[in-house]
Structures are given as C-alpha cells and as structure tokens.
Design goal:
Layout: H1 9-14, E1 24-27, E2 33-35, H2 36-52, E3 60-64, H3 69-80, E4 84-87, H4 94-104, E5 108-111, H5 116-125, E6 130-133, H6 141-146, E7 163-169, E8 177-182, H7 183-196, E9 204-207, H8 214-226, E10 230-233, H9 239-245, E11 251-254, H10 256-263, E12 278-281, H11 288-298, E13 303-308, E14 312-316, E15 330-331, E16 336-340, E17 353-358, E18 365-366, H12 370-376, E19 383-391, E20 397-402, E21 407-409, E22 412-414, H13 416-425, E23 429-439, E24 443-452, H14 460-467, E25 479-483, H15 496-502
Parallel strand pairs: 1-10, 3-4, 3-5, 5-6, 9-10, 9-11, 11-12, 12-13, 24-25
Antiparallel strand pairs: 1-2, 7-8, 8-18, 13-14, 14-15, 16-17, 17-19, 19-20, 21-22, 23-24
Helix pairs in contact: 2-3, 4-5, 7-8, 10-11
Bound molecules: methylmalonyl-coenzyme A and adenosine monophosphate (AMP).
Adenosine monophosphate binds at residues 169, 214, 282-285, 304, 306-309, 328, 385-387, 399, 402, 408, 413.
C-alpha cells in the first residue's frame, strides 16, 4: 500500500495539517497552546506506548476522561496505532461503566485519576490487561508512561473497512449498543463536511462540546484538523465565556440548548459574531423560533444538520443556498436518504415516513449484536434510523418524530426503557413510564410517571435521590409524578402520548 492509499483516519486527517507545524492547533487558554508539531509528537509517544504493549489487532481502548487536549492526543494516538477508540460519557457511573467494559472487552482502559478507586475494581473484574489514568491537568499514569517513548511514529496502515471507533448509543431494550465505525466511514464523512461547509485555512473553531460523542469528537474536531485550523478549546460550554471568545472565532458548533443559552444573554449580538462565518446546530431539533431569534439578534442563519452515531452526518442545510428553519436540509453528497411508508414505498412530498440511509458513512453493525444489526438494515442495504420525517417541495428533509422511544435532552439521548427498568426495581414501585416533556433549556426533560404497589409510600425526592449515583445525572428524571395507574390502550400498551399531553406543562 502506498502512503497516500493509507485509509487510517489519522493519515487522512493529518494530510490537512498546515505546512507550518509551529502554528497553533489547540489554544486551551491561560497560555496553554499546542502546535501541530506538539500534536504529532505527543500522539506519536502515546502510539509508541500502545504499540509496545503488543495489543492484538482490533484491540479496544476505552476512555472515560475529562475533556482536555491530551484526551484528543489519546484519540489520535489510538487511531495511529491501529487500535479502536471507545469514548465514554464522563457522567456515566459505575454500573454503566461496568456494562461497557464487560461488553466491549477493551485491552486498555483510561480513566480520570479521581475515578480510579471505582474503575479499578471494574477493570480487574473484567480482566482488562492495562489500566491508565489521565487527568484534565496533564496528570496520570498514561502521560508518565508515554514520556519515556520516542516522539516519532509511522502511522499504521489501515484499510477503509477496518474498525476505528466504537460509539455506544443507548439501546431501546435498555442495553446500549456499540456502533462500529470504520476508518472509511469516519474519514469519508469528514472529507464531505470539510468541502460542504467550506472549511478553509485560517478558520478558527470555538470548541465547547463534549468529546465523547460524534458531534464534538468527529464533526467539530475533524473539520478543524482537515483544514489546519486552530481550535479555541474549552472544557465545557458556558454562554458568557462563549460570547467572550466568539470574536476570535469563525466557526462554532453546538446543540440547540447552547443557542438558547446564548440568546438568554442580554449582551449577545452582532459584535460577538463579527468574525463568524458559520454556526452549526445538531444532535436535537432546533426550534424555528430559536433560528429566527438568532438571525434577528446576530444576522447569522444557523446551519442545522442531522446525523447519528451509527452514520455520522446524513443531511445538512446548504452553505450557500437557503437554510430553512425547522428542516435538516438536503442529503449530503454521496449519501442516499429515503423516506418510506410502512410497506417500504417511497413517500411523496409532505408525506410522513421512516427515514433510511445508505452510503460510505454508514456503520457496519452493532458490536457483537449480529441479530440486532440485521434487523436495522433493509434487504437493499439501507439503515433504519428510527427517525420519522418528510420531504418538502424543495427536497429539504424535516424530522417530525421518532419511531424509537427516545428522549433527547440537551443533545444527550436517554432511552426511557433503561430508566423504567431502574424505577421498576425500586422497592414499592409497581410500574413506571418515562417520557420526555418540552423543556425550555434542554428541549426535552426526562419525566417519570410512577405507580406504587398497594400500601407503598413513595416520595418524589426519594426516588430521584435513589436514581442519582446509579445512572448519569442527565438521565435522572427532573420530575417524578406519582399516579394510581398508567393509561393503557385496548392491547394493554401504555399510552405515552396521553402522558406527554398530561405533563406537557
Ligand atoms: C447537564 N444536565 C442535564 C444535561 N446536561 N440535564 C439534562 N440534559 C442534559 N443534557 C444537568 C446536570 O445533571 C446537572 O444537574 C445540571 O444540569 C448542571 O450540570 P452541568 O454539567 O453544569 O451542565 P451544563 O454544563 O450546563 O450542560 C448542559 C449542556 C451539556 C452544555 C447542554 O448537556 C452538553 O454539552 N450537551 C451536549 C451533548 C452532546 O454533545 N451531544 C451530541 C451527541 P444536577 O446538578 O441536578 O446534577 S452526538 C449526536 O447526538 C449525533 C451524532 C448528532 O447528530 O450530533
Ligand atoms: P445519537 O444516538 O446520540 O447519535 O443521536 C442520534 C439522534 O439524534 C438521531 O437519530 C435524531 O433522532 C437526533 N438528531 C440528530 N440531529 C438532529 C436534528 N438536527 N434534528 C432533530 N433530531 C436530531
């Protein structure tokens, strides 16, 4: 294989690094700057460390660490060394991490030093061969070990179909599924977005998203790397800090909650956006109202796009053409999108149907779930997204709902089934239903409706307190309503639509 045929995602991305390697790649604030040379050398050191561990081909590197430039270096190093990166939400608690480690059987686990006390027993129980720590302040055993390694590394050659990342998405049955994404899946999507969104030398990305999901890890970072652009890097989103930093940026990516919060700041306006050329929104529906208010306040039309962990980005509003509020735009080049009725026939304009997708971006399947994978693909190779949508007369797609029982809160997915199973196990609980209700800040708020066993004395605060510590805080219901019974249809199925109506306010 010649060098330019190497489909390793790092090789693809690094082709976009600027000729001047002494310029800034990541500006993490407080004088902490990483040049492109730093990125190459530090990722080489970690890649050398992993290579020396002689892990089997396809070995998984599971990572639950706070956001930091070093976490990006660890990601890039894993790709370079030809291993499979597996990012995990920092909000996950012991029971959740135990499941992921047991399911993915990683050869390496990297956790934050503060969590070592509870991660170590999990890693031991699952016989993980190598456990390292990495703190957001550059502490931990990973960097200590990597410091002894050489700072040059020949990126491993990978085929397009070789596995690069496993991204877990919450499962409809309560079990999370690992979406297997190849170097080719991620690389092709990165190149497509690079062209479609007109990434260019001199762009500056303000990066405030978490990096354990497709949005912050792939969509945002890859665009910047492929165009040799500087990233202004902050560990978390804060509206005031964003307004302070935006004048130095040209590109920003966020979930709708971030746009709502920017608009809540009285000082936010065209001044802050004076050098901005692109605001991108995704992961959850952007309300047309937010789109319009944003344009009124800043003169900028937010570009909304649509994607999934299984597929990376699928559609996007155009860069130059009309960005239509309430739509997710047009299929990206090279990606086929169709909306079909129950019989699998293509829907006409304004007809609601199931959204399916096929293309080089679509994952190969769920980790060790061949049956589930089979169910989610049609005979002609389209992936069933679980989203419902419709085309308008101009060929723009709108998402009108989901056939999967899913709540999206502040851009994070929560599967009701998982929360219901925890609630149903609680003492005194007979049954429960978990729904999403409209929420000004998070878009949807996780809400539980609980029926107690006869004579049981249930209490909202106690239920919420009991869930905390077990599951990630963003999954914990904001409210728990105690009722005598759940509404059911004649088939005995809980009518969640009625509950959503009842608790909408
Ligand atoms: C935080 N809290 C939340 C959420 N985030 N509750 C519900 N939903 C949330 N998303 C709760 C915390 O548990 C805590 O509650 C309180 O809010 C404050 O926590 P804090 O960490 O300070 O929150 P924050 O910093 O204000 O975070 C809000 C946020 C964050 C910035 C919107 O959630 C975020 O970064 N979301 C982005 C998610 C994302 O990147 N999704 C992409 C998925 P308490 O104090 O009671 O414990 S990838 C994807 O979907 C596809 C591929 C796609 O298309 O992109
Ligand atoms: P995830 O499983 O975290 O990858 O989330 C993917 C889901 O997020 C999709 O199946 C959609 O339901 C939702 N999603 C992503 N982008 C958008 C958007 N722009 N509008 C509405 N829903 C979206």
């Amino acid at each position: 294989m010649r060098e330019r045929d190497n489909q390793n995602l790092y090789a693809v991305l690094s082709a976009g690094f600027p000729a001047d390697r002494s310029s800034c790649c990541i500006d993490a604030g407080e004088g902490l700057r990483y040049t492109w040379d730093d990125v190459e050398r530090a990722s080489a050191m970690i890649a050398n460390l992993f290579s020396r561990l002689a892990l089997p081909r396809g070995a998984r590197v599971a990572v639950q660490v706070d956001k930091s430039p070093e976490a990006v270096l660890l990601y890039l190093a894993t790709l370079r060394a030809g291993y499979v990166f597996l990012p995990l939400n920092t909000a996950y608690q012991a029971a959740e991490i135990d499941y992921f480690v047991g399911d993915a059987e990683p050869s390496v686990v990297v956790c934050s030093p503060a969590n070592l006390g509870w991660v170590e027993p999990i890693a031991r129980r699952h016989r993980v061969p190598h456990l390292f720590t990495l703190g957001a302040d550059r502490t931990g055993t990973l960097l200590e070990a990597a410091a002894r390694e050489a700072d040059r590394f020949a990126t491993v050659r990978s085929r397009a179909d070789e596995l690069a990342c496993i991204v877990y998405t919450s499962g409809t049955t309560g079990r999370s599924k690992g979406a297997m994404l190849s170097h080719g899946n991620i690389g092709s999507n990165a190149r497509t977005l690079h062209t479609y969104w007109r990434w260019r030398a001199g762009d500056v990305l303000l990066h405030m998203l978490p990096i354990f999901h497709v949005h912050g890890l792939f969509v945002a970072i890859h665009g910047a790397l492929l165009s040799g652009s500087t990233m202004i890097w902050r560990a978390r989103f804060d509206a005031k800090e964003a307004i302070r930093l935006l004048p130095r940026a040209t590109v920003f990516m966020g979930v709708p909650t971030m746009y709502v919060r920017l608009l809540d700041e009285p000082g936010f306006g065209p001044q802050a956006c004076r050098n901005m050329r692109l605001f991108v929104s995704g992961s959850a529906p952007l309300l047309p109202d937010t789109f319009r208010q944003f344009e009124e306040r800043t003169g900028q039309r937010i570009l909304e796009r649509y994607g999934m962990s299984e597929t990376a980005m699928i559609t996007s509003n155009p860069y130059d053409g009309n960005r239509a509020a309430g739509t997710v735009g047009l299929p990206l080049p090279g990606i086929e999108v169709r909306v079909v009725d129950d019989a699998g026939r293509p829907c006409g304009t304004d007809e609601i149907g199931a959204i399916q997708v096929r293309g080089p971006n679509v994952f190969s399947g769920y980790w060790r779930m061949p049956e589930k994978t089979k169910e989610e693909f049609t005979a002609d190779g389209f992936f069933r997204t679980g989203d419902m949508g419709k085309w308008d007369a101009n060929g723009y797609l709108s998402i009108v709902g989901r056939s999967k029982d899913l709540i999206i809160t502040g851009g994070y997915n929560v599967y009701p089934k998982e929360i219901e199973s925890y609630l149903d196990e609680m003492e005194g609980v007979l049954e429960s239903a978990v729904i999403g209700v409209p929420h000004r800040d998070f878009g949807e708020a996780v809400t539980a409706v609980v029926v107690g066993k006869p004579g049981a004395r249930l209490d909202e605060a106690a239920i919420i307190a009991a869930l905390r510590g077990h599951i990630a805080a963003f999954k914990v219901p904001k409210r728990v309503h105690l009722v005598d019974e759940l509404p059911r249809n004649t088939m005995g199925k809980v009518q969640k639509n009625l509950l959503r109506e009842r608790y909408a306010t």
